[in-house]
Here is the input.
Amino acid sequence: MCAKARPLDLACPPVNLAEGESFAYMTPFRPGAKTIHNESEHDMIRDSIKAAQVSAMKAGDKPRLAAVRLILAKLKDKDIELRTATNVPDDDTLVVDVLQKMVKQRRESIAMYQQGGRQELADAEAAEVAVIEEFLPAQMGEDEVKAAIESITSELGASGMKDMGRVISELKARHGSQLDMGKASGLVKAALA
Here is the structure.
């Protein structure tokens, strides 16, 4: 004697998300619901990096493709790190911050490779720096940085080295994506000395 066949239960198991959260790819989308990654029209730098990856793949440019993939991997790492953050910065600000850190790391590596007599590795790092810098906003020249420092010191009434932290924080808030803060801090120190 055959047992009665039961109908299959094809219902999806429940997904544990925080209250008000939904996956970006789930439908229907509830207006105002918090998504894990809100892609907006403001993700311009990120979009240009993804487009560069596609064009490098089509062109068969392996060194450029490797550098672009490194950038995307770092951005993915940062996105994962910020999942638990309470205040997430604007996407372009986040991307610029990641790119600036990557450039700084590579410049330090270039100096170390040159000191060690490994010019081929230094050249590879310099090629990566060139690709990364394509996606950074135009950097301020030294004269522009000095002018910005001068205006901030006069606005804040900064007179000595004790005000250096205030000047640097204001400079970073206003022009952080357009300048190298390592060089800028030296210029601030010279201006306040």
